[in-house]
Amino acid sequence: MQHGPAVRRRKLGAELRALRNSAGLTSGEAARLAGWHQSKVSRIETGTSGVKPADVRLLLDVYGVGDAQLRELLLVLSGAGDGTGRHHWWHAYRGVLPPTYRDFISLESQANAMRTLETTVIPGLLQTPEYARAVTKAALEGASEERLDALVEVRLARQDVLRADPPLELSAVLDEAVLRREVGGPGVMARQLTRLVEAARLPQVRLQVLPFSAGAHIGVTGPFVIFSFSRTSDLDVVVLDHLTSSLYLERKEDLRAYLEAFNALSVHALSPEDSLDFIAGAAAGA
């Protein structure tokens, strides 16, 4: 288990090493073509030091990488803009967002698919402003109104990934407790559940409810998120949130275990169609 920035450096380095090998170059030859010392290439490939976007561009040119999507993804991992013109919009909130949250948003902005198990609250990408504020206020007791405003703005800005072209594909399994927990009061919860019904009808969103009647399940250990990337599965990562930090799991055996867990949860959960009816019923009774 590692923190996000370390995982991203390692993943970026591993991908650059694979591209160098594909180009038929040794690390010494790559360094010579880039005008560097060999040790710099080694540090980048092992993830022991950060790397500037300009250095990544240079290496990609040296290796003859012309795949625009792959170049964009690797540049984002190095800290460059995401190619949409938004250029790391979350950096404007650097003063209120911890590094692990900024890293999470960066991964989310470039992933093509996201699978998540939620056991306590509505997924952030589907929250209404009122619900997001109530959740944030409860999690950060004593936070100033100004900070709450900024964090809610971030939560809502993140939702743009569902409207991108192509959009992020979101698959979420929601424990029934997510729908039953009254956050922000009856009115806020009713509007949030109505929003959830609307989201469930989007082609890029797949929602399934895991009812109480399903009993104990593999997800009782807590929520998790799996990010997947279309260009290379080596960049896929599992994110576990804790009170003061996030942990990133990127070993293949960890990814396989969480993918199997998510698939098992999907089997035990209601179908998307039945889940939509279930959510609509909860909204009507809220």
Automatic annotation (TrEMBL):
Alphabetized PROSITE patterns for the sequence: HTH_CROC1
Short name of one Pfam family: DUF5753
Record-linked Gene3D superfamilies: lambda repressor-like DNA-binding domains
SMART domains, per database record: HTH_XRE
SUPFAM superfamilies: lambda repressor-like DNA-binding domains (SSF47413)
Recorded superkingdom: Bacteria
Stretches assigned to the HTH cro/C1-type domain: 16-70
Protein name from the UniProt record: Helix-turn-helix transcriptional regulator
